[in-house]
Amino acid sequence: MFERAADSIGLDFLAHPFWDKYLEFEERLEQHDHVHIILSRIIHIPMHQYARYFERYRRLVRSKPLAEAVPTNILEQYTMESSRMIQARGGSQQDVEREIWAKIEQYYADYFHKIRAETDKRWIYEQEIKRPYFHVTELDDAQLVNWHKYLDFEESEGDFKRIVFLYERCLVAAAQYDDFWQRYARFMYSQEGKTEEVRNIYIRASCLYTAIAQSQIRLQWAMFEEACDRADVAAAIYDAIIVVMPDYPDAVVKLANLQLRQDGIESAVNIYKNYLTALESSGQTKGILVTEMAKLSYLTSGDAENGRNVFRHYQNSILDSESFWSGWLEYEINLPVDMDYHMKFLTNVKNVHSLVRQSSRLQSDQVRLLSHRYMQFLSDRGGKTAAKEYIDTDALVNGSLIVVSLMENKMSQSSEDGKNKIFHSSENGKKNGTNQFINGHS
Question: For residue 151, what are the domain limits?
Fold first, then answer.
């Protein structure tokens, strides 16, 4: 039990109560050799009360035979050096032993200063830890920053065992923070042959400690499993997120992209279609999924009309979705433009904005935001009539009630005039054609 505890908490900066109990246990059993072994372990650990353990160990070493005072290779080195020096002076064997003991004393003194320096380095971070135990209330920002700095320091020291121990200790206090779990997983992944250890970190974080709403750690876990050629496990993780959070589109998008990589475009599109059919959620989520499916259809085919058809297909079913209309508008705006088709490009963007204003069921403030985006587009990439359209839209969007009313009448009249011009032009064309036919026939 004590050995299990030593593995779990023995390196803790405040582990002295545990080590005291372990030493007390061995002393009660009169296992003095075990006491010596335990103390020889403790003196290598930078911890709060390292000095009294060092002093106790040094006293114990003095009571031991010379052969047990230091490691064999160190004793051989000191014996050789002391023998040469004392023989050169003409001293006795006792003088040699005294010289060896002096070197041993210096050896432990140097080691004491080394461990004290290591302890002082860690004390900077240890004194900032106000809550080393778990609690449901959040840690303050200063403690979170301190844990990150402490981990940075320990990683720079390069001792794998101490680094892992500090991560495990940190994740007692910060168990609900997925960024620490992700950091731990990344560190373990950087080590050779630690795949199962990485997987265990993700499982503990996702299944035991972090809230389901903190989905990033689960999405990262799914990517890790796919990277390990376990696409079925990755898909199951995404499905599990969607079951609990059906209004979380990122998981659906990730799942569709997984299917795209594994099985192709048709499988990915089916993911979107299935979830759009089954989804009993807000139009906001549906709008995001439709936008992603449209972009996928375009990117995998190279034909913008394929993506446009996706928007048209779902247009009437989610008229109140701001994400749908903004997604469609951005889709048209961000398409690459060939100068030969510039006018068609401008017309497609304008048509979507017209649908937003005339057909959508968005709130007035949502329509205003999308109109502002359209105005920005006109200013940045519009054609020859962009300035007039910009001013017209500005008056329509930002004007007072009377201005908006007048602009709507003006634009409605302009539209009627345009239709009449087309009609009269068509009628004149018919008459002229008839006359020409009669005259020519005559």
Answer: 133-245
